[in-house]
Amino acid sequence: MKKKITIRDLAREAGVSVTTVSQILNNKGDRFSAATQEKVLALRDKYKYVPDFNARNLILKSAKTIGVLVPNIANPFFGTFIEGVQSIAREAEFIPLVFSANRDPKLEKYYLSQMIERSISGLVIASATMTTETIKEVISFNDIPYILFDQNHTQEGDRVQTNDYLGGQIAARHLIELGHKHIAVLTSDNPTENLNHRMNGFKNVIDENRLTIDAHHDVIRAPLTKDGGYKAAKKVYETGASAVFAANDEMAIGLLRGLHELGVQVPDDISVIGYDNIYWDDYVSPRLTTVQQPIFDLGAGATKMLIEQIDHNSNGARVQNFPVKLIKRNSTSSYRQK
Amino acid sequence: MKKKITIRDLAREAGVSVTTVSQILNNKGDRFSAATQEKVLALRDKYKYVPDFNARNLILKSAKTIGVLVPNIANPFFGTFIEGVQSIAREAEFIPLVFSANRDPKLEKYYLSQMIERSISGLVIASATMTTETIKEVISFNDIPYILFDQNHTQEGDRVQTNDYLGGQIAARHLIELGHKHIAVLTSDNPTENLNHRMNGFKNVIDENRLTIDAHHDVIRAPLTKDGGYKAAKKVYETGASAVFAANDEMAIGLLRGLHELGVQVPDDISVIGYDNIYWDDYVSPRLTTVQQPIFDLGAGATKMLIEQIDHNSNGARVQNFPVKLIKRNSTSSYRQK
Asked: Which chain B residue has its CA at the smallest distance from A315's CA?
């Protein structure tokens, strides 16, 4: 049997790339010269080329790309979030492209414009620095479907979220049930709105229990990173508190290291509770008690919602809520008089 | 969906040609009157016009985008690698788009074709599953500049690399200098070629020192993950070895957790050395001794090389080597008779 002519043979004989041939044969060849287009079509006729179904399928599905904007790819929280996005995107045959502008709003806006130029099908925006202005000017204006997560200051558009206020309450209740009365807080020096909710929920339960957190002495502020928590350890210890709520797990894990180096025993000398339930919590010592956000599910849920939007061409202000809950491990224990 | 504003709409409303609009919007409009330039720019702002990719491609040759293919975004090794890529891409005004096909060669090939259709400027390929066939058929054939890292079976194309054989030797020398004689190895159940080099270097030094690693009893195989290391802890302990070399840090960190739960003291009962120097090594207990790969620099170096390739249109088989070195922390100590 004669060997079947492939798209590769055509490309070779025409002296162009496979992509060029495929685009011309699929009537998407406008950007190539008339001479190139004619050469390719003539070769198709000469060899009576019939596109291979699979090869063709590869090309016709080409528009389906989801952009995923995160503040920091190296943060394990967003690593897990992206895995959730990928699981759904893959099923639905979308390609997820991840980009990160490290919380620089100008760069975010620029990258977004570039994504839109490349005919992205939709966007999952998990960056708290994205401004309402950018969403309106760049995204909505171009009718790009999008889903928001961890947004600061806008109430527009479909979104996935967790209840940060409740999460803060859960953390406070846990420490109070363990008998702690002098409690410190380690939080961001530049808090986003969801962090404020988290801290307000925490303080609400403290107040209800007629305890106080002295804003000057018991609230320590630092960057929301492992290093931030690590360097704040001495200040946290000097509050004299028997328990501390760290605003996220990265910070809490840094704090554990700092306290260890100071010779402070966790949880015997001080209980530590974090927030997020990143997958590293099981690998530090002691294993970290925390409030779980269902990170993978948030990424998957956002992507499901986005694909519905793309398929049905609808965007309202739908909100999907995901639950938070206490994960008790070894970094918290009952209050003991020293 | 609302109709997207096109360059043609702008031209019509401004009463000028499409070419005039495109040249003005691309800062090549010097030859037109100030009034014309202002009119076009005002219309762009009024309609928040984002140039369409294909239209723009006709005029501007390059849309500057770098695709970064990694096996797993959630792995902190690749998180740091990507940060290195971003640092250089940002300086050179390229947009890095990260994609991950979780070590599925078919999916990798499909994603790559899609990137190429979207006129990506170049690729950093940090996936050991990428086949020579895919590189030839999809990437080289389309004349896409690319850089390889951690490649298995191809010797073609520019690449960045570290000396895995030397890294393995460094790990073995460290343990032997500490006086260990019975040494175990915890390695992958599905090793890539660079891992084999690493293990061969390790064994070379063991042999030189007239020690032996019993292939049946002292070599434990598990998935190359934290969970893999965690679940292998009992087997590692049962070798009776006084020291163990884990093939990467994720595995070593899982092993530390597993040994801790078994009541085995590290390094008093057994010394543990890892490989990579991921940023979590400082946050586990005890802090992990390891062989450092300069992960951020590898990402940055690959990207510098790629941008040179894009700018100068050259691809040979240039190889840039990056150093490895011992990072001594607290998980290894001198051999003590039990």
From this structure: B1
pLDDT in tens, B129-151: 777 777 777 777 777 888 988 76
Quickly state the pLDDT bin for B315 (edges 50, 70, 90): low
CA angle A81, A87, A92 (to 5 degrees): 130
Q: Report the share of chain B in percent with pLDDT over 90.
A: 53
- Using omega within 30 degrees of 0 as the cis cutoff, is the peptide bond preceding A71 cis? no
Q: Residues with Cβ < 8 Å from A139, sequence gap 6 or more?
A: A112, A116, A123, A125, A146
Residue A10 · residue A41 · CB < 8 Å: no
- Please report which confidence band the pLDDT of residue B60 belongs to, taking 50, 70 and 90 as the band edges: very low
The H or E element that residue B298 is part of is: helix B295-312
Q: Give me the helix-helix angle, B34-47 and B7-14, nearest 10°.
A: 130
CB within 8 Å: A118 and B2: no
Structural domains of chain B ordered from first start: 7-59 (1.10.260.40), 65-162+295-322 (3.40.50.2300), 164-293 (3.40.50.2300)
Q: What is the ipTM of this complex?
A: 0.78
Q: Which of residues 119-178 of B touch A (CB under 8 A)?
A: 137, 141-143
**Model pLDDT, residue B155:** 62
3-state secondary structure B80-109: HHHHHHHHHHHHCCCEEEEEECCCCHHHHH
- How would you class B314 by CB atoms within 10 Å of its CB: exposed for 0-12, middle for 13-18, buried for 19 or more? exposed
CA atoms of A202 and A188, how far apart (whole Å): 15
Name chain A contacts of B283, Cβ cutoff 8 Å: 226, 253-254, 256-257, 280, 284
Chain A: closest CA distance from residue B76 (Å): 6
Structure tokens belonging to residue A333: 């224990």
